Amino acid sequence: xxxxxxxxxxxxLAPLLAEHEAYLAERFELVRAYDADARQALxxxxxxxxxxxxxxxxxxxxxxxxxxxxxxxxxxxxGVGVDAIDLEQAGARGIRVSTTDDILTDAVxxxxxxxxLALLRQVCVADRFVRAGRWRQGGFPLLGTSLRGQRVGIIxxxxxxxxxxxxxxxxxxxxxxxxxxxxxxxAYAYHPDPCSLAAASDxxxxxxxxxxxxxHLVDGQVLEALGAEGxxxxxxxxxxxxxxxxxxxxxxxxxxxxxxxxxxxxxxxPEALFALDNVVLQPHLGSATLQTRRAMADHVVxxxxxx
Length: 307
Ligand code: 8YV
Prior knowledge:
Elements: E1 9-12, H1 18-25, E2 29-32, H2 36-45, E3 50-56, H3 63-67, E4 74-78, H4 87-93, E5 96-98, H5 105-120, H6 123-131, E6 151-155, H7 159-168, E7 174-178, E8 189-190, H8 194-199, E9 203-206, H9 220-226, E10 231-234, H10 243-252, E11 257-260, E12 279-281, H11 290-305
Parallel strand pairs: 1-2, 1-3, 3-4, 4-5, 6-7, 6-9, 7-8, 9-10, 10-11, 11-12
Helix pairs in contact: 5-7
This protein binds 2-keto-D-gluconic acid (8YV).
2-keto-D-gluconic acid binds next to loops.
């Protein structure tokens, strides 16, 4: 009697583009667990079926679920952030964690510049002004802010932070940064702590990796140092900023504005932000271009096939 070998099971905790899921489905039995209930159900299974998990930078792999997969050997992240993965458990168990590394750097850096310009030039407010038919009653009442001459501080001058800096230099800004350690041969001024950087900045761009080491790195003191004329851009992780402090200061005028692509508890966004014209809000779209997401998914599929 022939025993037809079934396809190996592949656990998907976050989606890939449909074309990539179809490609994997020809080779694997895809088990999709995109929500908490589906992931909870897997916990009971203590499944030995899964040697590979595909996820993304936001979903990661809950530690309890990782522990419930005794045969797990690869976590393929469709993203660059690993702050939602228990790297200690993965290391101890010899579970390889692959990410899309530098593939999304350009897209996220482009998004940071787009959001900053949208904020400074009131693009979203003016768009609402036109759509509401208010132009017929008179010209747009607000003036924007020029980038030239502004002092830009970058929290986290890694690949994405450096790509943002390179994009902003032609705008005639003055660049500085904060990292745990100064970078060798870096043309930008280094600040050993985020408060010092914020005090010397008009614009603070958050590009630091998420995780316990950077949680609330931008806290109330840093936002106080940035000041009532200052603006914040965050394309990194919501966890890097004390969100309640941010919302309070944006609401009461102690902070000039913010352009936010990420939030502490996505997809929950503090509703106090919805009515504010000094805020630009995006649903974590930093890497969300067709070209980038295709290249990321290609990288994930290669990692799975060569596990
Ligand atoms: C990804 C991210 O787009 O790379 C990350 O860690 O947060 C985003 O840029 C997200 O993981 C969806 O794939």
